[in-house]
Amino acid sequence: MVELLKVHGSQNKFFILDQTALQNKLPQPELVALAKHITEPEQGLLDGADGLLVIDESDHDGVLGSMQVINTDGSIASMCGNGLRTVSRYLSDKFNQDAFKVETMDSDLAVHREADLANDVPTFSVEISPVTFAKETLPFDHLGTDNLINKAVPEFAPGLKFTAIAVPNPHLISFVDEETMHSKLLGQLGKMLNEPNEYFPDGVNVSFAQILDRNTLFVRTYERGVGFTNACGTGMSATSLAFCLNHPEMADFNQTISVYNPGGMVKTRVHDNDSNFTIDLIGNATFTHKVEIPEEDLHANVLDHAQISETGEQPAYLRFVEGLKRQRV
């Protein structure tokens, strides 16, 4: 039997599969098929998830393992901040180390265990980088500019300004008022830019942000390859950078920023090293379920014989979220 985990960071939900625990690793086509099946809300397990996180070995110095992110539609994400926190906790527990690096598609990222956000809410800080604004890295076209930083784009939404940042996942960000935040615009724009379009040919994550107070935001994201999720780690990180750049009267570099989201809250810190930006993403890494399944079933993409047990960690996270709601009332 092989053990998978159902996990979440800010209610951004995933399954973790450790390839190193298998006698025979799943080849990429089998991984993609499994990801699409296990994350499906009705035919998958535990009401599905937002993706599959695949852990494997790494031969890089100071790196405990590698992480691959497979979205619900089978596409590959270059990074996932919320997912990286859960993978970091898994590797930390497995190797009994509290600070190390994890290999992702584009870079080896520093991670470390943090003081718990609340009682019994395991918390990790993960590095979000590299950061670029160049249109080739996102990529985007037909917007009449080589970078998009706090500029109006009437083609997207009259009256709003947008910032495009790759971290390295591509993100399009706009700071909006409460009415716009709760309108249908984010879903419409996210859908438009993730279907065939002339602006972002590879699609883009779209985030709306509402400034609540100094160094305090609420962020909602339409994720490429997924749709609406409770939270997007790289989206909250990119939005924190845009906050510091576009609203310096309300945001501070190197200071903790509280970022609320539909799934809870994370903290970020944005660092400016001569315009070389990095972001710390700090939040929960919660394991909700253990899933035991025969290895041959994973290869066959059969989930019927899975044995599921709860970890008991979710109630503590829900108490944390309930406390956040009382803080904001």
Features:
DAP_epimerase_DapF; Diaminopimelate Epimerase, Chain A, domain 1; lysine biosynthesis; Diaminopimelate epimerase; diaminopimelate epimerase activity; alpha+beta; globular; 7 helices; 19-stranded mixed β-sheet; 329 residues; cytoplasm
What does this structure look like?
- The N and C termini lie far apart (47 Å).
- It contains seven helices and 19 strands.
- The mean pLDDT is 96.
- Helices cover 22% and strands 36% of the residues.
- It is globular and about 55 Å long.
- It is of the alpha+beta class.
- The chain folds into two domains: 2-126 and 285-328, Diaminopimelate Epimerase, Chain A, domain 1 (Roll), CATH 3.10.310; 151-282, Diaminopimelate Epimerase, Chain A, domain 1 (Roll).
- The longest helix has 15 residues, at 81-95.
- It has helices spanning 28-38, 81-95, 178-181, 185-193, 233-246, 295-300, 314-328, and strands at 2-9, 12-18, 51-56, 63-71, 76-77, 99-103, 108-114, 123-128, 151-152, 161-166, 170-175, 205-213, 216-223, 227-228, 257-261, 264-273, 276-284, 286-293, 307-310.
- The protein has a 19-stranded mixed sheet that branches.
- This is Diaminopimelate epimerase.
- Keywords: Amino-acid biosynthesis, Cytoplasm, Isomerase, Lysine biosynthesis.
- Catalyzes the stereoinversion of LL-2,6-diaminopimelate (L,L-DAP) to meso-diaminopimelate (meso-DAP), a precursor of L-lysine and an essential component of the bacterial peptidoglycan.
- It comes from Lentilactobacillus parabuchneri.
- The record marks 171, 223 as: Could be important to modulate the pK values of the two catalytic cysteine residues.
